[in-house]
Amino acid sequence: MVCSALRKNGVTKDIDVHLMVEPVDDMIGAFADAGASYITFHPEASNHVDRSLSLIRERGCKAGLVFTPSTSLDYAKYVLDKCDIILLMSGKWEDTYVNVRIVFCCVCFLSVVFVFCCVCVVCCVCLT
Known about the structure:
Elements: H1 2-8, E1 16-19, H2 25-34, E2 38-41, H3 49-58, E3 62-67, E4 85-88, H4 93-96, E5 101-104, E6 111-114, H5 124-127
Parallel strand pairs: 1-2, 2-3, 3-4
Antiparallel strand pairs: 5-6
């Protein structure tokens, strides 16, 4: 997992994990154990947004919600007090996920061509 590889390579800065899976609760523990600092998710990916946010905070991470332009802000209405961060996306993930990006490894800064739209990428050399 990229989070644990970053931690093993001495990265001490916060790691923000944006979960794009369903169901989200199954992945929270794995990413928290791997060293995530922030875990955000799309409210549509959870049957119980309140419970998912609580799971994240119980694991010692900061919790947050992700909103696309088509996601209703009503999801945050009753759980805003459990959110440490709100991520507002400028487009739907389907539109950006297929783009090829040239990014840099956050450990060695080697240029990496990556198929996903990511903020933090570790190259294969640094993962070993």
